[in-house]
Automatic annotation (TrEMBL):
Its EC number is 3.1.2.-. This is PaaI family thioesterase. It holds the Pfam family 4HBT. The lineage of its organism: Bacteria, Pseudomonadati, Pseudomonadota, Gammaproteobacteria, Pseudomonadales. The keyword DNA damage does not apply. GO terms for molecular function: 1,4-dihydroxy-2-naphthoyl-CoA thioesterase activity. It comes from Pseudomonas auratipiscis.
Amino acid sequence: MSDTPLMAMAERFLCALPHCQVLQMRVHHVDNQGMTLVLHYSPKIIGNPQTGAIHGGALTTLMDTTCGMATLCVLPAFEVCPTLDLRIDYMHSAKPGLDVYGYAHCYRVTRDVIFTRGMAYQDDPEQPIAQVVGTFMRLGKNVKGGLSFGSSLKERGQ
């Protein structure tokens, strides 16, 4: 499944998000510097049938999830960190038929808030589809998500 504890935790986290499973998102790479997820191109995520362009909602989900999961890379233990704010600047449409990669990293961690930034791209990271900045609230390690979310991540990893 994975070769690092961080990758295993990221894969479990993504598997616990039903909407990400519907979108067939996968962890592409993770290390202590950041997170890269992949959104596989599918007819299910087309927003414009005439052009085959991916729906903006699918790209927003990719970037919100990538930024939120980047918090795993900087925290010593899992914490539920809901989105406070997310800004996405779309540069151009995604090319039909190609997967989209979302990369994010945390650039500042405070007691209460984690600040992230990243981008969405396809075949060339130097030509991003979108740039993103997000902030995430730290609720602490004792707060659990719905349906025992936090404990399910820990249990599967042991």
